Amino acid sequence: MFRNATLLLVLSSCFSLTACAESAEVSWPKDWRVDEMPAPDSPFEPGVKGERQRASKLKPDGEQAVVAELTRLPLPTQQEVVLDRVLSQMRQGVQLGFAQSGLQTRCEPPKDARMGNLAAREVTCTASQAGRPALQQSLLMARSETAVYSLTFAMPADQVEIVADEVKQVQASLRLE
């Protein structure tokens, strides 16, 4: 049987876009640990780096209750980005990662959402093991004039309701340029 920490590690390796930036502000809850992550390469411009930040909240037993990543990738002028297409690619990567770990995944269709001050698109996937929900991951994408942003939240299924308010607060606190 998989342990939640192992599954969250699998989730973390599935993030294809995710984190924080000079022109992105986020208010992480005070009891979350925040780590700067290696800057991702921009798929839009060779040699250009984005910015990424990961935050996690631990349960009292030391296991992760939720892991979040915020990524900012600068956009060249007039760059077209179809958020649903990017979300579809991210969802496929998540589903593949779960399948390779022996998990079945069900994802909801993309829906409208908010990432702070920007309109966004969101997909939520639930990974099950032996027919029982084990993990939930939400993928959000937004675009400004100068950047594309992704925000992901991954958590054991039993933590979804427990951390729901904090996840909403983080999402609402974003100020993206």
List the main descriptive attributes of the protein structure presented here.
single chain, 177 residues, alpha+beta, Protein Transport Mog1p, Chain A, two-stranded antiparallel ribbon, globular, disordered N terminus
Quick structural gist:
This protein has 177 residues and is an alpha+beta fold. It has helices at 4-14, 83-100, 160-173, and strands spanning 24-25, 33-36, 51-58, 64-74, 104-107, 111-115, 118-129, 132-143, 147-156, 175-176.
Could you characterize what this model shows?
The protein has one domain: Protein Transport Mog1p, Chain A (3-Layer(aba) Sandwich). It has helices at 4-14, 83-100, 160-173, and strands spanning 24-25, 33-36, 51-58, 64-74, 104-107, 111-115, 118-129, 132-143, 147-156, 175-176. It contains 3 helices and 10 strands, in the order αββββαβββββαβ. The strands form 2 sheets. Strands 2, 3, 4, 5, 6, 7, 8 and 9 form an 8-stranded antiparallel sheet that branches. It is globular and about 45 Å long. It has 177 residues and is α+β, with helices and mostly antiparallel strands. β6 and β7 form a beta hairpin. Pfam families: DUF4946. Residues 1-21 form the signal peptide. InterPro entries: DUF4946. Residues 33-59 are annotated as: Disordered. Keywords: Signal.
